[in-house]
Amino acid sequence: MNTLEPLPADFYGYADLLDDTDKKILARVREFAEEKIAPVADDHWARAEFPYELIPGFAELDIVGLDRDWPDRPAHSRLLTSFIRMELSRVDPSMATFFAVQAGLALSSIDLCGSDEQKERWLPAMRRMEKIGAFALTEPHGGSDVAGGLETTARREGDEWVIDGAKRWIGNGTFADLVVVWARDAADDQVKGFVVEKGMPGFTARKMEGKLALRTVQNADLTFDGVRVPAANRLPGARTFADTNRVLRVSRGGVVWGAVGAMAAVYELARDYATTRIQFGSPIASYQLVQDHLVSILGNATASLGMAVRVAQLQDAGTFRNEQAALAKRQATLMLRDSVARAREVFGGNGILLENKVGRFFNDAEALYSYEGTKEINTLVVGRAVTGIGAFVGRARQKP
């Protein structure tokens, strides 16, 4: 594929903001997604198994860490890396999430918080996808409140740190070669970052079963039972939760693009179905109520894409703020929920058949809606920014 054809859901042509070099890279990603990922996506989703055979293809694309400078490759724009997330999610949000953990959360943690020696030790192998990364923050008892309620602990003993605790919902966790683990330092009660490598004694990973969304993603329950981590594996730039939040701020903007990609997918699926499905002697696309669904999905996708593009531009400019990430994530995933429901309705009963794909996106939307900050938490982040008043802590009713 030498040219980048416009996507039907890119109604205003936002991809034209990319230069010709970036468009060629994006065209290669689209080709890989459509020719390699799409044929196996439904089967692996149904079996909740990961297509490990696709990893060499990802590596060949050489798209990990595109937004940072390497000795042999200058940094590309955040706009390009964001469009890549959209293209992957348009075919399979599970594989887009796998890639986002590798190229986003895991790699960014080391890039933003690691020493020069740590970056040299791990990042080139992650770029080549010879080492797969994971990001371990969420815990069995801590989701939205993890900043203040982190239970996993680390204590210094000589030239080692000893980590105890548990993590949950860790994408790539079952097979990751290295896991960025966030733990509370027993000495100063501050959150710090560590790289735990596969095979370290006391570290175990167990696949979570029974998921109804992003089933291909291998989420894991991780346990740390006196895991001894060399001091050289502590990320020196991760000293408090504020440093953790630097990583989350970047990744939260990426979820917006995942939502846009999923909306682009269900728009195409619903439009194509509506123009070929005959009922009462006519394509159902000829009926006003069906057209309302299609235009509403397109409107959601277009509005979200416009917001997502501006997010990427602000990231490139270095002026991106937490509340901007929060608003974009909140709105895009709300509109994604509406869009997948409308697309499912266009398909009628056929929408629950996996072969028609829309049901897979319907389920996957629930994960995108929840992870990287719930609607409620992101609402409060924006609410604090616009009012100057924090409303995170509920107050118990006073008895008369």
CATH superfamily of the largest domain: Butyryl-CoA Dehydrogenase, subunit A, domain 3
Find the structural class using helix and strand composition: alpha+beta
CATH class group of the largest domain: Mainly Alpha
* Helix fraction bin: 40-55%
Number of domains: 3
Integer average pLDDT: 94
Largest sheet: 8 strands, mixed
N-end to C-end Cα span:
71 Å
Tell me the fraction of residues in β-strands, as a range. Answer: 5-15%
CATH topology (level 3) name of the largest domain: Butyryl-CoA Dehydrogenase, subunit A, domain 3
Radius of gyration (Å): 21 Å
Number of beta-strand segments: 10
Helix/strand order: HHHHHEHEEEEEEEHEEHHHH
> How would you sum up the global shape?
globular
Family: Belongs to the acyl-CoA dehydrogenase family.
Pfam families: Acyl-CoA_dh_1 (PF00441), Acyl-CoA_dh_M (PF02770), Acyl-CoA_dh_N (PF02771)
Cofactor: FAD
InterPro entries: ACX4-like (IPR045008), Acyl-CoA_DH_CS (IPR006089), Acyl-CoA_Oxase/DH_mid-dom (IPR006091), Acyl-CoA_Oxase/DH_mid-dom_sf (IPR046373), AcylCo_DH-like_C (IPR036250), AcylCo_DH/oxidase_C (IPR009075), AcylCoA_DH/ox_N (IPR013786), AcylCoA_DH/ox_N_sf (IPR037069)
Key words describing this protein structure:
11 helices; 400 residues; alpha+beta; disordered C terminus; Butyryl-CoA Dehydrogenase, subunit A, domain 3; Butyryl-Coa Dehydrogenase, subunit A, domain 1; eight-stranded mixed β-sheet; 10 strands; Butyryl-CoA Dehydrogenase, subunit A, domain 2
